[in-house]
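so the lab meeting is tmrw and i was supposed to have these ready like two days ago... anyway. pasting both below. for each one the top line is the aa sequence and the line under it is the structure tokens. i havent really looked at them closely yet so no promises
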Amino acid sequence: MRPIASLSQPAADDFHEPIALLFVDGSHEYDLVLEDFEKWIPKVVDGGWVAFHDTTWTEGPRKVVGHGIYRSRRFKDARFVVGSTTVARRVARNSVVDRARNRYVLGVKTAFWLGSSALKKQRKLLPEPLERLGRRVLKAIQ
């Protein structure tokens, strides 16, 4: 293994080894996330795992994994972890049951996102001094 000092997209063009675990944590811009997906996913071996960070609250990664993983026939065992990372296993072709499970997880993830968004909007209704005090209290008891 050797580090590559480069941006993701140019690095993908020069990278020709099979990948068993791919972790993508880069730009949140839809076009760049899609380019990462299109350039790196073909390098992942059948049965290999992919993980994309920031797929819950940021639109670019959320849209790419929504279509490219959760609604795809090329992935199974899709999950979202730590609230914002999507992981899945790449396969040549998933089954109807795999697709149903992936869609179910996408539904749960979407409900989580909508619920979290509603909570964030409610939190913004608190006066700023009260919110700062709450953060200090949480920090002190952690």
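ok protien two:
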Amino acid sequence: MVKLYSRTVNAQQPLSEVLERYFPWCGGELEGIRQIFESYARRKARQQVLDYDDLLLFWSALCATPGTGRAVADRFDHILVDEYQDTNAVQAEILRGMRQTRDNITVVGDDAQSIYSFRAATVRNILDFPQHFPERRW
């Protein structure tokens, strides 16, 4: 269940799509799984705790917040990301948000090697780097 939840959150895809593509044997349990996810979110809120997926979502939201996001981005002169092929959609959003005001970003990675698919890592992030950061040298 944790893998399913994490993939849904990090891929930023609807639960139904994630079930269909990655967990087809659970397809008939969509509503039950949705209820479990909602219960999990309520429980975390009641206990005032965050899991790793939440930390990424909160950081992404912070970067996207007008004013605050720019202030956070301005605190970092340079960003270096190792193993960029092992980042997911949320992590790519965070990087774009953190480069609102500066061009200094370097990513390295190997598009033939990826081990974090369980967290929805996508090699597209490194392959699409020139489109996401067109003003950077490639």
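from a quick look at the 2nd one: The longest strand covers residues 79-81. The chain has eight helices and two strands. will dig more after coffe
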